[in-house]
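dude i think i finally got it to work??
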Amino acid sequence: MTLTPAPGAAWLRWFLGRVAYRLRQARSVLWPQVDPVLLAAARSRLPPRWRRPFDRLGGSEKAHILRLYRAITTDPTLSDSDREALVPLALTHDLGKAITRPTFLERVVKTLLPIPNRSHPILGARLLRRLGAPPALVRRVARHHRDPGHDRLLALFQRFDDVL
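look at this
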């Protein structure tokens, strides 16, 4: 959840940062890079029942998840407990996209235009609930594109998700 700063130099930096972020996203959709070794390591962190929906994700979704996974697992500023809470969220937050199955054109348009993502968080949360995920993880997956409120871990996750 990125808030828009007031007009001025800060706004220009924010705007240029958002443009750069959207261009990186577009590149990832057009030419996803999925490291098979990192994918295997990340996938092994999931309970066996969660792996099938994870495997159905497209290349660009997996590439995004792996960028998050790498950033979270290597960030020296995170406590071990925060890291252990963020890794499952990073690996599952977009599982709803395995259900919605956006077309290539839809992914490109959503990457280039600030269209809100409303269906995949809810569908992903429902899937995780059926798979027996902890309630806190289900709630965070459902809210990962909304204001985190007082959920410090969701806010922390969104800071990673917003730049990757």
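Residues 9-30 form the longest helix (22 residues).
im so relieved honestly
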